[in-house]
UniProtKB/TrEMBL annotation:
Protein name: SAM-dependent MTase RsmB/NOP-type domain-containing protein
SUPFAM superfamilies per the UniProt record, alphabetical: S-adenosyl-L-methionine-dependent methyltransferases (SSF53335)
Top-level division of the source organism's lineage: Bacteria
Domain SAM-dependent MTase RsmB/NOP-type: 38-330
Matching InterPro entries: MeTrfase_RsmB-F_NOP2_cat (IPR049560), MeTrfase_RsmB-F_NOP2_dom (IPR001678), RCMT (IPR023267), SAM-dependent_MTases_sf (IPR029063)
Taxon lineage: Bacteria, Katanobacteria
Keywords of this entry: Methyltransferase, RNA-binding, S-adenosyl-L-methionine, Transferase
Sequence similarity: Belongs to the class I-like SAM-binding methyltransferase superfamily. RsmB/NOP family.
Amino acid sequence: MTILTSSGLNTIMESDLSKPELFAGRIKDIFGGKAGDVLEAISHPRYETFRLNLNKSGVKEVLRKLRGLGFEIREGVLPGSYVNLSSLNGSRISQTEFFKNGIVYVQGLSSMLDVVVLDPKPDEKILDLCASPGSKTSYIASMTGVPGNIYAVENNSARFFSLKKNLALQGFDGVVTVKSNAVGLINRYPEFREFFDKILVDVPCSNEGNVRFVDKDPLKFWNPKLPKKISMLQKKILASGYNMLKPGGFMVYSTCTYSFEENEAVINWVLKKFTDLEAVEVTLPFKELSHVRGITEHRGEKVDSRISGALRILPGNYFDGFFISLLQRQSVQEH
């Protein structure tokens, strides 16, 4: 697959470009001098990463059995995370009985990172607003140990039952599951208004961060027109989250995509709409992570300078491309 990355790309009409060339141009437009690193990274596969279900077995026992099956495993940088170094050779933990029995849960480290940023506590009411298939919900439950304080929302019937199945398989069926549209949720459940201490808003997106050129037909579902369209839905979901967040509470907005329209532009919109929302700088729990900060100017469009505190995770051997913004609703005294 040929990827055009030269500066001459800007002088070519987008309609004349192939999908790979157009995608590469979008990456260059977003990341500038870092674009080469991004394109190089997504030309290689990512290691399979996972975490262990401590409800079902001990860490040492599971790791010993997995290694006995021939897996080469190292500890990951996030709490409870592990890397399957054998995955590039085709040895997938997702094909083992440990995965099928819910003892091991395969999950990307980028997906886990926004839960770490949310920093859930046992005594907090926590909402996962776009929850299926339950990866982040179950990680929250494993970190707090109090599933009954966690609410998980999913509207699609098939995805809702997949969510419930995954939570039950891991022993977290105490999570409160809600089959409902995330937009306007408080119209159906008015008791949710300003009810939650922390809310995770990992919205549906164009999934650009999951593109790997080593995959078969990696851009099959990529549509360069989708970011502008889907950003309208993302804004509605984020506004819904705001209405359910307690004053003083924290909300994480995240996507697994690169586009400015779905990331910084959405945060800029919500900061203008709700003046008691503050963009908080995302701090990393470790240093070994390739990232850049939120973009505050794109194609001549300037956004709120506080958005520079957001985090753009660059793809690599262990992480996929991801965007994370931390927001806090100010208390009445602060506002």
